Amino acid sequence: MLYYTLNRLALALVIVSVVMLLLFSMIYLIPGDPAAVALGPRATEAMREALRVKIGLDQPIWVQFWNFFTSAWTGDLGREVLSDRPVAAVVLEQLPFTMALIFSGVGWSVALGIPLGCWAAVKRNSLADHIVGVISVAVIAVPSFVVAIYALLLFAVTLRWLPAIGAGESGNFFDQLVHLILPSLAVGIGWVGYIARMVRASMLESMGAQHVRTARAFGLPESRIVYQYALKIAILPTITLLGVGIGQMLSSAVFAEIVFARPGVGKLVYDAILTRNYPLVTGTVLVTTVLFVLINLLADLIVGMLDPRVRSGL
Amino acid sequence: MKKNTDFLSSSLSRRSFLAATGAFGTAMCIAPHASVSSDGSVLVLRSYSDLQVLDPAFRLSLPEEDIIRSIFAPLVVPQAGDVWGWNAIAAEAIEQLDELTVSFKLHDNIGFTDGYGQMTAEDVKFSLERIADPALESPYAGDWGALREVEVKDRLSGLIHLKNEFVPLWSTTLPTPASCVLSKKAMEELGDKITTKPVAQSGQYLLADWQPKQKTILKRNPDWSHTPGGFEEIHIIPIEDPATAERGFEAGDLDYTWVAVPSIPRLKENPPENSVLLEKPSLAYVWLGINQDVPPFDNPNIRRAVQHAIDRQVVVDAAYFGAASVGNGIIAPGLPGSRDSVTYDYDPDKARALLEQEGVSDLDVTLDILNQSERLAAAQVIQAYLAEVGINCEIKQNDSGTFWTLGSKDGDYWNKLQMLLQRYSMQPDPSWATVWFTPEQVGVWNWERFNNEEYKSLHDQGLVESDLAERDRIYRRMQELMDESGCYVFLTHEVVGAVHRNTIVPGLKPNGESLFSEFRPA
What we know:
The structure holds two protein chains of two kinds. By secondary structure, chain A is mainly alpha-helical. Chain A is 79% helix and 0% strand. Chain A is built from 13 helices and no strands. The longest helix of chain A is centred in the last third of the chain and has 38 residues, at 222-259. By secondary structure, chain B is an alpha+beta fold. The longest helix of chain B has 18 residues, at 468-485. The chains are: A mainly alpha, B alpha+beta.
């Protein structure tokens, strides 16, 4: 298990480094001048040049990359161009909102996807199975921003049951929870379909496994066979899928944060790209990449812990 | 372990989960969502951007200007209503004594927070001269470019001495954050610009809380002894996307928001409950620009052919769904120099004749635009009109970060940039519109590279000419020169749309820009 963990950690470090290199190359290939945006139309060329020097844009790209990379290891992600605040602080302010959104989205997908998948597997080839299949494919096919807009129009604008914008009053847990319902549904609904399909397929496989057949031969109740024996095995690929899904939900979070005017790192990085706020773009993407890699690492380790075959496969 | 499992299963049974979910759903249905401002003490507004800098000398956006004016008392503020003017705030009295001198006297009881004492004429001197000081490198130094010095007469009075007559002083310098009075002591202790943490506030409101990307909360200043702000609290929600803000308003989460111009007809036809839709003339100006230094538009007749090829009314109607009218220049209606017509007309035969005269056929050109729906709609109509006279136009959409660098002389795209759809905004003085098209601005903000010495000379004259009729003549002539260059097809001044609850009276400048501290309950 130790070798497995170290192996995964080393891979994670390589992934983060490669992503940063690619990102750094990409943002400097697209045109745009953060100094012009930061200082506005009335700044003189001398003022813009002074700002470029201050934020290191006068340096060759490889020097900028090296400076960023070496500072990042110490936790220093630089300073934001517009407000001159530390990038790390800005990102950490926004991160909890996005994490809440994503984990609520995971909550929706797990709470709905697993029971639907189980039900479809148990009722294999029945009308219920077909209905679940159609619903699953439908929610996978519809983009999250479409779900977001329609949910908002129905529940916020027409019915006025739920708020349309914002993240709720700080310190008011109930208000924040209410503000999470629609955006997290928009982020998580597609994954309900993925998980339902995955759980159904895995369940069908595990329902035919020897230990399940043995349990059935012993006359154990069907519900116990399904939830205690079959689902326990079938859930493993779902954990791996969720690791990837969280990365996808990070992308969906950008739309959800814009449509629902929520704070969060998705909207932060979107705005930063539009304003060519390079330190903020690199800092935010570094943090989210690390987060994504860590979540996948965690998913791999959980699967490794639960399934000895994964460990022995090394 | 077994005990824990039992505990979980007993507390989270299917029955209890369903009961809790049902209760939650019922509660949501019984108590529909309501705006925070339902008790009338809190006003919830949308701003199009979050605050970044609270320093009057380094402000970046209009919402910041509004916040700055609310928390750092300015000498004067713009007047709310349909006529451009100003109201004194920190100044008890302020008047122009002669062309080069303005006298002021402060109210005797304006205090700074954080123990920085009372506002004095020395603070005014510090604040105004600070912005003008080249060492500060403020982008707004030009606001006080005509300032010679501020002379302190006594504790509350002083004189503002100008180097030369400066006509926009009362329209676009004093009624802006350039007249906000900061505490000299506090700023000297700070030793740097104010970022997002204000020091020594003094306005009608105080910045109580800033939750980045979430909201800014202003609270009524308890020590302000003049006309108080209209609400106990103002919550300013940063929402960049106008469609999101419109949905937020319709859902009852906002009391006031600007709306996108194309949404105005829809909101007129189907206004949200208990709301009022406002339409205000805008100071913005939108035009099709043609780069005179890049072939084939280095030929003036081809530029003129484009001017004659486009029916501006149809372009504007298509882009703004009939909500905006055609504009005839860069200076908005109501200001000196505003025109009723341009010197070219829609005449496709003339356009074809000009192209034929120059021996040009099947011309391929590009049109760069910002990736916004109304710009794309306008560009597509322009594309269709150009096709009718034999010009094939490719539309290139750009994100804002790219778009705003296209004509810069620092890059190399300016020598490929052929046509662009552009929109600038201005303050209520014509010089704010004309300044961007002078020869010094070529490759900075003058992307058509229009280079005319007479224009430059007239711009300089306009800054010191106080006779209204003469100013009108000067600025009309400048726009005629722009017409004659063939570099411009003026499209519209747009219109500003806003919706608000009928329980409030918004404080707005004549062009629809908000004045937070002027909002009042109905």
